[in-house]
Amino acid sequence: MIKIEFGNSFVTDAVVDINYVKVVPQTQLPEFIAVNQGENFSISYGMKKKDIVFGLGENVGGMNKRGGIYESFCFDEFNHTPDKKSLYAAHNLIIVDGERKFGLFIDHPGKVRFDVGFTDIDTLEISMENPNFNLYIITGNSLKEIVKKFRKAIGISYIPPKWAFGFQQSRWSYPDMTSITEIADKFRNSQIPCDTIYMDIDYMDNYKNFTIDKAKFPEFSEFVKFIKNKGFRLIPIIDAGCKKEKGYDISDEGIENGYYCLDKDGKPFVGAVWPGHVYFPDFMNSKVRTWFGDKYKILIDQGIEGFWNDMNEPAIFYSEGGIKKAFEKIKSMEGKNIGVDLYFQMKDTMEGISHSIEDYKSFYHNVDGELINHYDLHNLYGYNMTRAAGESFVKNYPDKRILLFSRASYVGMHRYGGIWTGDNKSWWEHLLLNIKMMPSINMLGFLYSGADVGGFGCDASAELVIRWTQFGVFTPLLRNHTTLGTRAQEPFAFDVESTDIFRSAINLRYALIPYIYSEFMKAAKESECYFKSLAYEFSDDISRRVEDQVLVGDSVMLAPIYTPNTFSRNVWMPEDMLLWKVGDYTDFNYSLHPKGHHFIDIELDEIPLFIRKNKILVIGNHSHNIDSIDQSEITVIAYVQDLATYRLYNDDGVTTNYMNGDYTELDITIKIQEDSKPQVLTNLSENSIIKKINYLIVNSKGQLFKL
Amino acid sequence: MIKIEFGNSFVTDAVVDINYVKVVPQTQLPEFIAVNQGENFSISYGMKKKDIVFGLGENVGGMNKRGGIYESFCFDEFNHTPDKKSLYAAHNLIIVDGERKFGLFIDHPGKVRFDVGFTDIDTLEISMENPNFNLYIITGNSLKEIVKKFRKAIGISYIPPKWAFGFQQSRWSYPDMTSITEIADKFRNSQIPCDTIYMDIDYMDNYKNFTIDKAKFPEFSEFVKFIKNKGFRLIPIIDAGCKKEKGYDISDEGIENGYYCLDKDGKPFVGAVWPGHVYFPDFMNSKVRTWFGDKYKILIDQGIEGFWNDMNEPAIFYSEGGIKKAFEKIKSMEGKNIGVDLYFQMKDTMEGISHSIEDYKSFYHNVDGELINHYDLHNLYGYNMTRAAGESFVKNYPDKRILLFSRASYVGMHRYGGIWTGDNKSWWEHLLLNIKMMPSINMLGFLYSGADVGGFGCDASAELVIRWTQFGVFTPLLRNHTTLGTRAQEPFAFDVESTDIFRSAINLRYALIPYIYSEFMKAAKESECYFKSLAYEFSDDISRRVEDQVLVGDSVMLAPIYTPNTFSRNVWMPEDMLLWKVGDYTDFNYSLHPKGHHFIDIELDEIPLFIRKNKILVIGNHSHNIDSIDQSEITVIAYVQDLATYRLYNDDGVTTNYMNGDYTELDITIKIQEDSKPQVLTNLSENSIIKKINYLIVNSKGQLFKL
């Protein structure tokens, strides 16, 4: 890819491997890209009518971004309705897939706006509020090639521990030992596998980072052990803002050392989040990153093995200055006959105090002695918070994998942690958004990702949580999470029949771990995607526009149900496929379908799993958590017309020894012979963990061979 | 249908024809309905797994309501996200279509809650906050039969003038003569047909009902004529709340005569809407209805021929008491360290002042001398405002049809006016919601209805407005409308190519008037539906669950495009069908498809129109408005396997003479003979307006006969 520098851009460390980058002068900008100097600085491209535009990672809209305006501006967007332009991330990669195929990565830490044929139906216009940015242009013959080139330049994705691929349970909040224990026991009693329980903000002493509320957890490290003995890990939340409180060491240390962001007068900037007034660590400063990152040790020393970094856009409920102005404005309206104009002003005043641009423009980062306005670096904040933790983990625990994921992100953060897609809602529309978003997020290298399954805001129906879980079975991060005050939505929170369906789906997840983990690790190591749009692998016009089916790894296609009361759907099969409607995963009932459009019945307790032609799926067995899975036996499920091969990757799942070659790769080859019978070529080494392989092989005639 | 009285219910006048009602005692409640006396009063039904539940008219969710909670509580729901439970209407009809088939109509003027298998997956529970209601139970062999029985009992639907079937243009606002004239000229210059231009709140003098801002319209009646000479009618908005202002006659008269709702101390209740402080006419009082209804004459006398009644849930921005409390609460927070709890309280305080339950409970209606709390009658308010206008029109202009539709409604209001579906957004999701809602609304008799095409809130893309208009071509009320500050979305507001597509679609609308008007009038006269779910006509399991296709009248099925960047879709054809992809309606290009699933290509400029087997579509010609259409020639388009018949209804379109038999019915019969050629049996009477009929007849072999 080529890099063209405009102005004097801040170094974001998004691109780290310069071997894949060729810097060229502005004069070598391709002729199809126009540069426009207007009120904002923009570049534009004249799209052809049927060009498809992929990219933008975590954002609203479809896989095809055409027809909308999007912004990269990390934002605490709790209510992401279809008119919103920005979510929690800034993923400035956009790829035109048409007559001309190319990707553009805008490396710019400020707000970037992508008008993808909204204002003018055929114009892609990307604008920045200041002209300092690096433009990377990636050409290639396919979406896949472009993504791969880009990924090579931004570095290898974060790899979580294997147990982080288990089912995870969260809510705001299981606030204390009793509630956590109760949830843990309910999982075990209902025989639903689960690996982690999340600790939302209430575990802290007054929402102070790296503290524990002693009233709720008198012996925290003992409790961590107690829960771990039940087979669960606890995952506490860490917020960006640190409570302003004399005597609270993080508050005091940060002030003493000048580690917090400053206001225009050079005093620590005060915003407000959960505890009220907070300071914001200046994560742009490497010393602050080291300081803050090392604080995670406080919890790790008590047995904690994973974290989620939240509110790091950063979310700011209000600033001291902002709320003062709002109060004055509101008071000035008192006693007036408030009609249409003042009424909306009044509403806007209160709405406007949160996450306000004015506040973001009112504080500063100290970058090597230079004060830079936060607004201009806004999109790097969450990235560098997570980088702080990630770098500290590598330094302090070089051999251990620690679970880490973040709400806000920028390109490059994928090297330090995963992401979840933020505060969605229990809307069917957000299940579909989740499906559409996964391939886009994967292009940026955020392989360890997922949505709040069942939806965070609002009450969920059993059916919604079931259908969402059935999709979530395939997302690397599979976490059921909901907010304060909503209906309980754990897998055992509904009726008995629903619980049975959840159990089957989650058992399948655990059985799929050999495949999911193998595909995840290969995608990470080879700069590939784990979730892919059909356009990624198929170039026909129908596949390129499919928005409600995805590929998972090399062998599987999904066509989830994402509407209520739905027991059938249309499925486009871009090639011949084998359909396994999975209820109980030990029951392999299949049907073959030729390439084409198919209308498929799918009952509430069925997950339709499509195995591609000449591809192989590997499953194992479920257990109550990842650590306890018996790995000695696997089942190979294959749909072979002539020849299928698969490389099954595995490693210890908890250390970083895989980096030193400490992993296994089992090559499986299945040939169909002239008599239509399969021949299997697989060599188990003597010291292999796997001792037995079962084969379920379907040939093109639909004959099943059990070997 | 049977009627069972519970408690002492308020007389709503929803049901008007007692010939269709049999009153039975509570002891005769069918055994499958359970009555539960708990905190609320509820009735419940144990659903079978695959029961489908239709109904609830204007509300969120699908055609099949199962899996959600809905409320009937007329509400100014500007932001109708999927978690909302109530929109602007209270349409308490719910129909179980399963092993057992029956409808329930809850005639109750207060809030009604329908839990359709949300809390318990198999239980339909309908609860009321007080036990005074009439329960109607309608049994039948089909959805269609149940709806028809119900409709017979609630009376004949409102019939608008024929010109109200033309294209209509609105926005908040075309505030003055200049802007209205400009819009009118743009329609004529771009050769896009249009019949009306809407006047939103800014035409009034300080938002005072029945006044005109003299600065904007110095000679209003002259301007009405001027615009009518250009071929447009002006449609002003009327709000429920009347400005509190000494010297404003409506304010003064209402106070003098005690025509306004009262607070608990017997003083006129003061809320606030557009002009700030307003009084709310007590529409429950027949004298007030007469007084207010007669006020429409003020505008009719100036040449106005249609109205839209708005804000009549009623919307209340705040009450005097409510805003005072809110100010106190906000001030009490000043200077505090506002953390998570106070922060949300602060936000809720400002959110909570609008349309608050507390306010609705704080004022009273005078019903025959008895003061009844508004909250208990809430859902009747908009209904009775529109009834006020409708009754006055019948009294004052018995021969003339006047356009009238309302935002809020209750069952029975369909006799007085139509409805639009309120303040939707420029979201693709709301186009789909519009599609799903039309059959539900039709069941309640609200035949003259439609959504704000293109979406009211938010900015719209050309593509969204195009696809929405392509569906809107079939809604009786076809109005493009958007709010203050959004992107212009008139059919000429985008690029030239889009304008061409809008022109084709709207030309088609005008050409379809013979069919649309005929089907509308027959549906009204025969208590039938104009928009129907497939479940209405087809009983197979696939048809019963289709949520994104609808039937329009007797001959046509629609399968609209409702997602962006989409140029194809799956279509379920419940019987053999003839597909006409309409671009230019004078170009009849067709294809035949057998019953089954089909994947159909649909370009942006195409409207896929499916003509049913043995059915007939009649089209005419377009013109710049309805009045100027040449009705002398029609084209009959038919797909005939053996025999097709059609009755084409028509009348003068402006008077009520049709009630006295002054209408025409042309019977068209087409037989396919043994040689596969069609034989046409149609007799034009000598005095028929129609002088020429062209026939385009396709037989089952796909042969086209032009006769």
**What is the CATH T-level topology of the largest domain in chain A?**
TIM Barrel
Main sheet properties of chain A: 9 strands, parallel
What is the oligomeric state here? homodimer
CATH architecture verdict of the largest domain in chain A = Alpha-Beta Barrel
Number of domains of chain A: 4
End-to-end separation of chain A? 48 Å
- Share of residues in helices of chain A: 10-25%
Overall outline of chain A: globular
CATH superfamily caption of the largest domain in chain A: Glycosidases
* Order of adjacent strands in the largest pleated sheet of chain A: 27-26-24-20-15-14-13-29-28
Structural class, from secondary structure content of chain A?
alpha+beta
Regions with little confidence, pLDDT below 50 for 5+ residues of chain A: none
Count the DSSP helices of chain A.
15
CATH class of the largest domain in chain A: Alpha Beta
Query: Hey, roughly how much beta strand do the residues of chain A contain?
Result: 25-35%
Largest interface, C-beta closer than 8 angstroms, per-chain residues? A-B, 65 and 67 residues
Blueprint (SSEs and pairs):
Two copies of one chain form a homodimer.
Chain A: E1 2-6, E2 22-23, E3 34-37, E4 41-46, E5 52-55, E6 68-72, E7 89-90, E8 93-97, E9 101-107, E10 112-116, E11 123-128, E12 133-139, H1 143-154, E13 167-169, H2 177-189, E14 196-199, H3 220-229, E15 233-239, E16 242-243, H4 249-257, E17 262-263, E18 271-273, E19 276-279, H5 286-300, E20 306-310, E21 318-319, H6 320-333, H7 340-352, H8 357-360, E22 363-367, E23 370-373, H9 374-377, H10 381-396, E24 403-406, E25 409-410, E26 418-420, H11 428-443, E27 449-450, E28 452-453, H12 462-472, E29 478-480, H13 496-511, H14 513-525, E30 531-532, H15 541-544, E31 550-552, E32 556-558, E33 568-573, E34 577-582, E35 590-593, E36 596-601, E37 607-612, E38 615-619, E39 633-640, E40 643-650, E41 664-672, E42 678-682, E43 692-699, E44 704-706
Parallel strand pairs in A: 1-2, 7-25, 13-14, 13-29, 14-15, 15-20, 20-24, 24-26, 26-27, 28-29, 39-43
Antiparallel strand pairs in A: 1-12, 3-4, 4-11, 5-8, 6-10, 8-9, 9-12, 10-11, 16-19, 17-22, 18-19, 18-21, 22-23, 30-31, 31-32, 32-37, 33-36, 34-35, 34-37, 38-39, 40-41, 41-42, 43-44
